[in-house]
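Crash report, auto-generated. Payload:
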Amino acid sequence: MPNADDPQGKTERFQTMRLASVGIEMALAVIIGFFVGYWLDERFDTSPVLSLVFLALGTVAGMRGLFRAARRALREEQRRSRGKEP
Amino acid sequence: MRKALASALLGLVLCFSGVTELAASPTDTTGEAAGCLGDHWSFFDVVAPALRQNLCGMLGTSFIEGEPVTQGVHIPMALLVSLVCVFLALLTRRGIAKSKDPVVPDSHFSVRTFFELLIKFILDTMTSVMGEKRARYHLPFIAGLAVFILFSNLAGLVPGLLPPTESLNTTFALATLVFFATHIAGVREQKAGYLKHFLGPIIKWYALPLMIIMFVIETISHLVRPMSLSLRLMGNMVGKHKVVTIFLGFNILFVPLPIMALGLLVAAVQTFVFCLLATIYLALAVEHEEDHS
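Recovered output after restart:
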């Protein structure tokens, strides 16, 4: 149970909110990657090579964000459970 | 310290109003694109009927597609909200200056106690994310953001006023501030070592191709942050406003009230999420690479 001097419930809530942003970030990474590639394609007249490359990079960025958030959450979870049992 | 806080708040809010105004114009295109603002009358249509046309004329054409700007009510709204924030900050400051012992809080609920509670809550939240020292250093920025966004969101519940955060221009201006603030804080804290954040796990000469790819990927994931911050805030405010509009359309007394109560919740939660994420981004930027790999 959360109480005043033990912010355990609090950190859990923060974690939830942080993880709530993973979905939108993943989607936006793909979109931004594509549009950066599209813009570069128009500049250098290399359509559609750079669009595809940056689409792939954006997807990787999205996956990496998801992976990083998951690892962070997992580590925090471990730290919490370690704190619980002395 | 409280005094310093109040004046810092004031300065920041003033800055924000300027920045919001400057950054407000670019992405604004047509009513459909911007989506929401100005599709019903506002307070400013009564006080200054030609205000919108004049503003749009001053803003000229937008950066996207070069179309003329047709929406602009979020700018006077943001200014109004900033003025309210400044006024409340001044009231708080006066309250602190007048009291005999500034450490003792007021015995009743006042503007001062409201701000004290709010800023204490923000400081506690920040401390749990980034530690006491850094939290105190970054408090004025995040608290300024929080106060501005909170009052902007709440303005949406006053009939005749439109929340400035309902326009992507305002929210994107705020998110851009966060974007620059994180990178400036990172460079200040670690100097050139900040670049390591962008170069992936292996930093050796033979891993140069990997480092280049990681640099692009990291850049994309950093660009995503202001987008997601601004889109989330704007989307929630537009959604809330639309639902309230629909329930108002039933023309039954007291029916929209539960939705407006929900709107209070949305306003507070979205402020909290924006500031929490901004704090987390700051914390990620200032901590060293080995801490978060």
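Post-recovery validation: The interface with chain B takes residues 7, 10-11, 14, 17-18, 20-21, 24-25, 28-29, 32-33, 36, 54, 57-58, 60-62, 64-65, 72 of chain A (CB under 8 Å).
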